[in-house]
């Protein structure tokens, strides 16, 4: 762990394993109550220091971290790949994106501003002048998941520091290594001691201690809907942002460009073995092109190469644990028992599952209505656009969705009627660039990320009024 820039150990070591083969890739320590308190105390002491720094000083540290991360890209990509089982080529992309997230955060630090309020629009405002300023909240607890261990942490830490807060970061227990490396990297870039503390250990105990801690002003959480909902209920008056799951759907109209749509949907369904919150899980294809779409999709899915995550050629490696792979396997079996057709893949070897293509998946099975978080795509057909829109909306989740069509009328009808945080036209719902507003509705969460939007959540607007 890192508290006040210094290494901290407890008497409870825990091995970190490569999910693909169970080999040990590192050892971390589980925090106890005293260590969590020390982490929060360190962040509390650093909060006034961060608050007093100029915007440009904060921006310079974030720019420095951006450059340093890029210069150590291979080292970080290997760490991400080892702890999460993500194929190395995807881990390199995650490292590049993490650096860019920090750069966007540094740019937003330069743009942090309030506004002048037109007080004399009210009769009682005559002779008054007012402005708002955006002030940091203080100490922010960042709790992050395993699937993008670095970039999703940077989506919290970058904006929090840009806005002048200090941070206690609790990474997922399975993927803590890149988080600790990043804390050291920030120290090398001149971040004040205590502005970023990393504590590791089980979310159920130390995560909840953070949520209850009186000195934590905000919880920013990315993870499952079950945990997110629990944290929200426990957090009382603390500010909470929740980036949760989805069972992303895409509509393929009969005028869609399949040359483009099919490879994108395959990439969106199986990247990181489907362990992406916006993984393409439900594909609704117009009945006129059902056969052609399925043939092309299966052909592309079969080309994906399974293997060790450190092999540069690997497209599909393992899920995060063998238990998770068993769960996904059982959901595929359930869908087949209820009438779905397994057209390709689905076979499990330890924690790895071959990319599974299902067709005609009943609406009431888990693969349809819950978040699969595995390499599975379900393809169903529809007759009218209204029917497809209703199918997409028949979900407890609402993070992102999309449509492929050449008809602008259909595209905007779907964009207006589908209830999600982000809608993609001629792009898969798994699409994200790091500066865009990102977040969900319904069970997919509350609040938005993307540095500009996260900073709004991580600051308080204060009014300063002056009687002239
Ligand atoms: P998770 O089990 O909910 O864990 C996420 C984080 O919360 C981990 O650090 C975990 O610690 C911690 N945690 C667990 N129980 C806790 C509790 N009671 N109190 C406080 N913290 C607790 O999720 P995951 O399996 O790591 O990640 C997968 C989920 O994240 C999926 O549902 C996915 O859709 C979602 N996700 C959403 C987004 C988005 O931006 N919307 C992005 C990526 C992932 P431990 O590891 O120690 O249990």
Keywords:
Aldehyde Dehydrogenase, Chain A, domain 1; alpha/beta; 24 strands; six-stranded mixed β-sheet; single chain; 468 residues; Aldehyde Dehydrogenase, Chain A, domain 2
Q: Can you name the CATH architecture of the largest domain?
A: 3-Layer(aba) Sandwich
Please report which band the strand proportion falls in: under 5%, 5-15%, 15-25%, 25-35%, 35-45% or over 45%: 15-25%
Question: What ligand species are in this complex?
Answer: NADP nicotinamide-adenine-dinucleotide phosphate
Uncertain regions: pLDDT < 50 for 5+ in a row? none
Taken from the alpha-carbon principal axes, the silhouette is globular
Q: What strand line-up does the widest sheet have? A: 14-17-18-13-12-20-21
Task: Give a description of the structure.
This protein has 468 residues and is α/β, with parallel strands linked by helices. It folds into two domains: 267 residues, 3-Layer(aba) Sandwich (Aldehyde Dehydrogenase, Chain A, domain 1); 186 residues, 3-Layer(aba) Sandwich (Aldehyde Dehydrogenase, Chain A, domain 2). The protein has 15 helices and 24 strands. The strands form seven sheets. The protein has a seven-stranded mixed sheet with strand order 14-17-18-13-12-20-21, with helices on both faces. α2 packs antiparallel against α4. The longest helix is centred in the N-terminal third of the chain and has 23 residues. The radius of gyration is 23 Å and the shape is globular. It starts with a strand and ends with a strand.
């Amino acid at each position: 762990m890192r508290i006040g820039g210094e290494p901290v150990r407890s008497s409870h070591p825990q091995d970190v394993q490569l999910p693909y083969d169970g080999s040990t890739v590192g050892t971390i320590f589980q925090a106890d109550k005293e260590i969590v308190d020390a982490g929060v105390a360190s962040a509390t002491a650093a909060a006034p220091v961060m608050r007093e720094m100029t915007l440009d000083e904060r921006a310079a540290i974030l720019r420095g971290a951006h450059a340093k991360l890029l210069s150590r890209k291979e080292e970080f990509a290997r760490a991400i790949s080892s702890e999460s089982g993500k194929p190395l080529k995807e881990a390199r992309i995650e490292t590049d994106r993490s650096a860019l997230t920090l750069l966007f955060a540094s740019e937003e630090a330069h743009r942090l501003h309030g506004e002048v309020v037109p007080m004399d629009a009210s009769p009682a405002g005559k002779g008054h002048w007012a402005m708002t300023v955006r002030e940091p909240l203080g100490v922010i607890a960042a709790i992050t998941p395993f699937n993008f261990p670095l970039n999703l942490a940077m989506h919290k830490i970058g904006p929090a520091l840009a806005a002048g807060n200090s941070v206690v970061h609790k990474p997922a227990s399975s993927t803590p290594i890149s988080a600790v490396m990043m804390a050291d990297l920030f120290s090398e870039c001149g971040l004040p001691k205590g502005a970023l503390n990393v504590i590791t250990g089980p979310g159920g105990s130390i995560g909840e201690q953070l949520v209850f801690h009186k000195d934590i002003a905000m919880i920013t959480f990315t993870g499952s809907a079950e945990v997110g909902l629990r944290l929200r209920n426990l957090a009382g008056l603390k500010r909470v942002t929740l980036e949760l799951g989805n069972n992303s759907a895409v509509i393929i109209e009969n005028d869609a460009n399949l040359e483009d749509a099919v490879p994108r949907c395959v990439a969106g369904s199986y990247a990181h073995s489907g362990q992406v919150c916006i993984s393409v899980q439900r594909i609704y294809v117009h009945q006129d092109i059902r056969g052609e779409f399925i043939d092309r999709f299966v052909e592309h899915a079969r080309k994906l190469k399974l293997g060790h995550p450190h092999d540069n050629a690997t497209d599909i490696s393992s899920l995060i644990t063998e238990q998770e792979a068993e769960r996904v396997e059982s959901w595929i079996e359930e869908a087949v028992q209820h009438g779905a057709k397994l057209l390709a893949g689905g076979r499990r070897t330890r924690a790895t599952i071959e990319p599974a293509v299902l067709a005609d998946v009943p609406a009431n099975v888990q693969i349809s209505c819950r978040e699969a978080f595995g390499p599975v795509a379900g393809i169903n057909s529809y007759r009218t656009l209204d029917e497809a829109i209703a199918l997409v909306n028949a979900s407890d989740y609402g993070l992102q969705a999309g449509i492929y069509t050449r008809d602008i009328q259909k595209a905007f009808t779907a964009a207006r009627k589908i209830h999600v945080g982000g809608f993609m036209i001629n792009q898969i719902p798994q699409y994200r660039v790091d500066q865009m507003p990102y977040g969900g509705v319904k069970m997919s969460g509350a609040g938005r990320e993307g540095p500009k939007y996260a900073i709004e959540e991580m600051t308080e607007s204060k009014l300063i009024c002056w009687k002239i």
